[in-house]
Amino acid sequence: MSGRYINNLNQGQKRTERIDYNGGMTSIPPMAEDPVQHYIPPSPYSHPHPARPPQKKGMASSTILIIVIIIVVAVVIIGSVVFFAMIANIGGEPWEETRNFETDVHIEEGGHFRYLLSDSWEDEMIMNFTVGLINGSNYDVYIMDAMQYENAYGNQSTGAFSALFSWQDVANAMDFAVIEEPQGPYYLVVDNVEMSHVPGSAIPEGPIHVELELEITSRFDASW
Known about the structure:
Blueprint: E1 3-10, E2 13-20, E3 25-28, H1 57-90, E4 95-107, E5 112-118, E6 124-135, E7 139-145, H2 146-154, E8 165-170, E9 172-180, E10 186-191, E11 208-220
């Protein structure tokens, strides 16, 4: 028997019919459908990442050490810059300060007046002073350091007397004095004490009244 086959789709089924050239049609039972194949994408976790190789601890320690060294070097450099800047500032131009003092002083016979000129360490101290007699007899003017002052007025009976500068038996004194690198207290003394053991000193004749003017300049040379 000769013929041909046709496939007809009917409600989702596949059916094959054979057409006979003699005019007849014979049905062939439908073929079993293949099961539907669904596409399932691969899971992202189906292939886990390979384990990372362990990091070398030695490299991490070296990195930390390098960072610490850099920080220490930076601190040292900054500290050095600040230190030398301070030294440069200290070692700048010389500077000075000036103090003025004026007063009237009444001194009894056998007494004295002292004024502290300086108790600091300067490079140079310059004193311009005027002592004028208002009433009374002649007197003495001395500039002394602390030891000289104690020897002269603390232990007069010892006969130890010395002064850096002296103006003796005067009614008026106007002068200046310079002390290089003074160390410790220095005093200007107006003396109305009889000191027979001190040659050239005035002999008191009662109380005195004097006028005192001082200009004291302290110079500092910080170029060391």
